[in-house]
Amino acid sequence: MSLAINLTLASIDACEHSLTASEELPLPVSQSYTGRGMGRFLAQGKPKASVTCDKYPRICRAKGSGGPDCCNKQCVDVQMDRLNCGVCGNKCKYAETCCEGHCVNLSYNDKHCGKCSHSCSKKGSCAYGLCSYA
């Protein structure tokens, strides 16, 4: 333990010599600290503009995109997106899900019972997400 303390004190003493005016490290002139909230990387220059679908709508058709439709500069699928169901900006209610572009309640919809496109038989009805529940 005492060896570790001695080594630490020795390394601190070696680092504490004062720099003369000619030995001071130069600070980069082009970089300046701009204040709170902005780091040095953001202060170096303007961030590059990202490619958005409002300018390039074809990017929504690319593999791995959020969907084929562009809503509020984001690629979405209006057939399944709860915040853009059927058209951009059409939000489904709390208990509803977007199925085929329509807001439906999966607990009581005979055409979408329990999940999208799961129909109950003609005689059956949907209750609590189950066909012919009774």
Automatic annotation (TrEMBL):
Presence of the UniProt keyword Signal in the record: yes
Matching Pfam families: Stig1
Keywords: Signal
InterPro entries: Stig-like (IPR006969)
Top-level taxonomic group: Eukaryota
Entry keyword Signal: yes
Family listed: Belongs to the STIG1 family.
Name the record gives this protein: Stigma-specific STIG1-like protein 1
Organism: Cinnamomum micranthum f. kanehirae
Record lineage: Eukaryota, Viridiplantae, Streptophyta, Embryophyta, Tracheophyta
